[in-house]
UniProtKB/TrEMBL annotation:
The chain crosses the membrane at residues 27-48, 68-93, 105-132, 138-160, 181-204, 233-258, 270-300, 312-333. The keyword Ligase does not apply. Keywords: Cell membrane, Membrane, Transmembrane, Transmembrane helix. This is Sugar ABC transporter permease YjfF.
Length: 339
């Protein structure tokens, strides 16, 4: 008789779990990415023995802070059903412009806002092409990518070294409780703050709810009287601002700016966002998932570095994971459509 209550309890727990996943299907890819991250941590620690150390784990955020900021902005755009291929080039252009202005003696209090405004302007230009001229997001952002890369070369054909102490302080300062313990840099704090602000905007504001509505069904969002045009423009502006801020962070990270910085970064950003569970068709995804996707990406790079293998394996692994998550997303969308 004692086995009956246990069986009923297990059945009840199993039913509750199925109900949760049926109602929160959008969380399945996020939880899958989290599971992959945990398995990678456990496997790497078992193989190397010194992977889960404060230095290595802290460096994950330090080395990928700029990518995390870009991923937050990209999440907003992809949630609307769009794409932004210009973020890597905008990051390079704003970095080059900022380094040039700092070299000419302008204070950092002027240079950083200028970099953010330039990023916002580039994002707005892409949004205007998409919304008012009916240009496909892929083509509009591709044009912006070429324009931003060309502008970066117009600033200088060679690398510009950054010597401003305020910019270098962002990366060189390590905040830690004790020597040898976990640490974080101001660039890492900036990245985490961007994640928090992005998550709050999507979850608790009308702007965020409208973004999800547009991605789910833009025509329905228009019929409901939602500000579709303004929201889509703002989504691209958010992506542009994040690209400008990433320019600041990446400049601090490298201590210099170069016109070819950020080549391929837009693809890394899209891959991280998709691995984090955001649907490429829009309407489903979370900033937290994008953060997990960036950590998965960074962990793969670190593991391959530990192995001493060529970094080409990073691309191969990311490509395989991306394909896996796209398939998972298609299955979830198909099941949701049937329901």
């Amino acid at each position: 008789m004692t086995g009956i209550p246990v069986t009923v309890e297990r059945a009840s727990a199993s039913g509750a779990l199925r109900r949760f996943f049926s109602r929160r299907a959008s969380w399945i890819p996020v939880l899958a990415a989290l599971a992959i991250l945990i398995v990678m941590f456990i496997g790497a620690q078992a193989y190397f023995g010194n992977f889960l150390t404060p230095r290595v784990i802290s460096s994950l955020l330090l080395d990928n802070a700029y990518l995390l900021i870009l991923a937050v902005g990209m999440t907003f755009v992809i949630l609307t059903g769009g794409i932004d291929l210009s973020v890597g080039a905008v990051m390079a252009f704003t970095g080059m412009l900022g380094a040039s202005l700092l070299r000419d003696g302008l204070p950092v209090g002027v240079v950083v806002p200028v970099m953010l405004l330039i990023g916002a302007a580039m994002g707005l230009a892409v949004g205007i092409m998409v919304q008012y001229f009916d240009v496909q997001p892929f083509i509009a952002s591709l044009a912006a990518m070429f324009a931003a890369r060309g502008l970066a070369f117009m600033v200088s054909l060679s690398s510009i070294r950054v010597e401003d102490p305020a910019i270098l302080w962002l990366q060189s300062t390590r905040i830690q409780a004790a020597p040898g313990s976990w640490f974080i840099t101001p660039t890492g704090i900036l990245a985490i703050l961007v994640v928090i602000v992005g998550a709050l905007l999507l979850a608790y504001t009308r702007f965020g709810r409208t973004i999800y509505a547009i991605g789910g069904n833009e025509q329905s969002a228009r019929l409901m009287g939602l500000p579709v045009v303004r929201t889509k423009l703002l989504a691209y502006v958010v992506s542009g601002v994040c690209a400008g801020l990433a320019g600041v962070v990446f400049t601090a990270y490298t201590g210099a700016s170069y016109p070819l910085n950020g080549i391929g970064t837009e693809l890394d950003t899209i891959a991280a966002v998709v691995i984090g569970g955001t649907l490429l068709t829009g309407g489903s995804g979370y900033v937290l998932g994008s953060m997990i996707g960036v950590l998965v990406y960074g962990s793969i790079k670190t593991v391959i570095s530990f192995l001493g293998a060529e970094q080409s394996w990073t691309r191969i692994t990311i490509g395989a994971l991306l394909l896996l998550f796209v398939v998972v997303q298609r299955i979830i969308v198909a099941r949701s459509s049937r329901r």
